[in-house]
Write a structure and sequence with these properties.
Layout (H helix, E strand, L loop, with lengths): L2 H20 L1 H4 L1 H30 L3 H10 L5 H22 L13 H23 L3 H25 L3 H23 L13 H11 L2 H22 L2 H34 L6 H34 L12 H23 L2 H49 L10 H20 L3 H18 L1 H12 L4
Length: 466
């Protein structure tokens, strides 16, 4: 299959499978905010955010190696899965011995057990799902996403609506859905046939660890850049403010979720095509289309952010939309940085990935301390924006040493200027007629500027060969 058609096909399949799971939080957002309130919504965010960081450390970020080495056909897939799953199991069992230390964090002490079971099932489910995808079972990976979402919704309704279990019910729903996914994948993909305890390839294990261990600090830095805002806000302003911030972040994060689905398919293509003589043109063409798509989605979100969040959140979250615009711009640069990260994945330059993220995380911490006390939630949003902008700039310069990619800088600058203008309107304008007219005009400008990239995408997919 032609490289562009393969990329498009994998993106569509992954989107179908993950649309339900990725967008469950949006479909159910009013239900969650209504059942949990600001405090409960903020507490759930803290539990999930802490668990994501813990999983990276406890599993050595082995999932990244499962994808990188599982896709590459020169490595034995049984060896890759066995090394990955054993590393994960040992990691989560070790976590049981140190989990009580989480109680030292005052706003997490009552959720230690919930964090442990969330990490336990989530880590193993991630290992199994990533291997299934890397082994080429993309459709099965998609089906698993749909079924896991259905199970999650059922338990949400039982635990939160029927039994009114609040935060505990939310976390238990995710845990049981992940447990279902593990059983389903082991049965349908016959994962037991890939798993062995003895006779592991020591050279492959060393290679997998050399690739993934440098990604642990990378994940930690991404965590700091992405979610440390929540911990700073909780500590400096209170958990109810964190609930507001997380609600404001939900819609902007939808851009990252859409981009993440594409990135999964893109990483598969980037690894497969890493030795192609036309790799620079391939990257340039795909990035041109990708950035245009991100601009249009971001502009559309800015146009509709107020009515969407008014509909999706409970009454106590009124006015939350004003905190979203800066986060939308920050997510745009998150998407671009993630795309650049595929260069490091394909070329196995994980240390360079770590260095670029470290710079952004350091800036994020400093700006959070300064700006939250000065500007509240908008300060946290601005800190996030600046940190992701820095990461993107560094990666844009650094990755050119590996792949000479055309970033279409004039186009990028014009689109970003328009998006910033839309942000200022959302944040500052009170007259609703001027608000919607001006936003509509700017949205049309973005759509027109990026129309040709959409046509180019269709032409590339239709072509039988480059």
């Amino acid at each position: 299959m032609d490289r562009y058609k393969r990329l498009a096909s994998n993106t569509v399949i992954l989107a179908i499978g993950q649309f339900s799971s990725k967008f469950l939080v949006y479909i159910m957002m009013r239900f969650y905010t209504g059942m949990l309130g600001k405090d409960g919504y903020g507490a759930v965010a803290n539990i999930v955010d802490a668990s994501v960081l813990i999983m990276a450390f406890m599993t050595l970020s082995i999932g990244e190696s499962i994808i990188r080495f599982g896709i590459d056909n020169k490595y034995d897939k049984s060896q890759v899965f066995s090394i990955g799953l054993l590393t994960t199991i040992i990691g989560v069992l070790f976590f049981a011995t140190v989990a009580p230390a989480i109680g030292l964090i005052n706003f997490l002490y009552e959720y230690v057990f919930l964090i442990y079971i969330y990490v336990f099932t989530g880590s193993i489910k991630s290992c199994c799902a990533l291997f299934v995808r890397s082994a080429g079972y993309v459709r099965l990976f998609a089906i698993d996403g749909i079924l896991t979402t259905a199970v999650n919704i059922i338990f949400n309704l039982i635990f939160m609506l029927v039994f009114n279990m609040g935060v505990t019910g939310y976390i238990l729903s995710v845990v049981l859905a992940d447990a279902f996914s593990i059983i389903f994948l082991f049965y349908t993909a016959k994962l037991h046939k890939y798993f062995r305890i003895f006779g592991l390839d020591k050279r492959l294990r060393r290679s997998m660890y050399r690739f993934c261990i440098p990604l642990i600090p990378t994940t930690a830095m991404w965590w700091i850049t992405n979610v440390s805002d929540s911990f700073f806000i909780t500590s400096m302003l209170g958990v109810d403010y964190n609930g507001m911030y997380k609600a404001a972040y939900r819609l902007p994060n939808a851009i990252a979720l859409i981009s993440g689905i594409f990135s999964q398919a893109w990483n598969m293509s980037a690894i497969t095509e890493k030795n192609s003589r036309t790799i620079a043109r391939f990257y340039s063409n795909v990035f041109n289309i990708f950035q245009s798509t991100v601009y249009v989605i971001a502009a559309g979100m800015l146009l509709f952010i107020k009515p969407l969040l008014d509909i999706m959140t409970a009454n106590e979250f009124e006015g939350v939309y004003k905190y979203s615009p800066l986060l939308i711009i920050s997510v745009v640069f998150t998407c671009f940085s993630t795309f650049m990260g595929s260069v490091y994945v394909a070329s196995r330059k994980s240390v360079r990935s770590m260095v670029t993220v470290f710079s952004g995380a350091s800036i994020n911490i400093g700006l959070n301390l300064l700006l939250i006390s000065f500007w509240g939630l908008q300060g946290a949003a601005l800190a996030t924006l600046v940190s992701f902008l820095v990461i993107f700039i560094i990666r844009a310069i650094d990755t050119r040493k590996i792949v000479l990619m055309d970033l279409k800088l004039p186009k990028m600058i014009i689109n970003i200027i328009i998006l910033v203008g839309m942000c200022l309107i959302v944040m500052l304008v009170e007259n609703m007629m001027f608000y919607y007219i001006s936003l509509s005009v700017l949205f049309l400008a973005v759509a027109i500027l990026n129309f040709r990239s959409g046509i180019a995408a269709i032409e590339l997919i239709r072509k039988k060969r480059e």
